[in-house]
Specification:
Blueprint lengths: L4 H15 L7 H8 L3 H13 L3 E4 L5 E4 L8 H9 L23 H17 L3 H5 L3 H7 L7
Helix pairs in contact: 1-3, 1-4, 2-3, 4-5
């Protein structure tokens, strides 16, 4: 199984916000730290806001923050929400499915079961688990401060 770029970017954004939970973070700082184009990032942030994972604030002093505590965000929930419309294989697609074996294929059921096991495993991991006591991540995702 291969995750879409949108899912990996979504997790980077959520982890960045969790590490910096005490303030609004900007799209520019996330883009610079996580090496993501601001245009692509804007789409992901918008989607995460629509899905209820982020709260966004527009304007000069705007930015984004987690919409709920990191302890309440399951990684599996994020993956399902972001990956939801992407079929894992052609035979799971409503459009463009040309597989002639769909009616008799047992592999499709096995793949569906494996995907569900994948998500169940991720359901046990909370966003907080990824950032709590992770000094290396905090160092990467904390804003640089300049000594005056």
């Amino acid at each position: 199984m291969r995750l879409t770029k949108r899912t990996t970017i979504s997790m980077r954004v959520l982890m960045y916000c969790a590490v910096n939970r005490d303030r609004l973070v900007t799209k520019a700082e996330i883009a610079a730290t996580c090496k993501i184009s601001e245009n692509h990032l804007a789409q992901v942030i918008n989607k995460l806001g629509q899905l209820g994972f982020l709260t966004t604030q527009r304007g000069r002093n705007g930015g984004v923050t987690l919409a709920r505590p990191a302890t309440d965000i399951e990684v599996g929930e994020v993956f399902r929400a972001v990956e939801g419309s992407v079929p894992v294989a052609e035979c799971f697609s409503d459009e463009g499915n040309t597989c002639p074996l769909v009616e008799a294929c047992r592999l499709r059921g096995a793949i569906a079961e494996a995907v569900e096991a994948f998500y169940r495993t991720l359901d046990r991991i909370r966003l907080e688990d990824l950032v709590c006591r992770n000094g290396a991540l905090a160092e990467i995702m904390s804003p640089m401060t300049c000594a005056a």
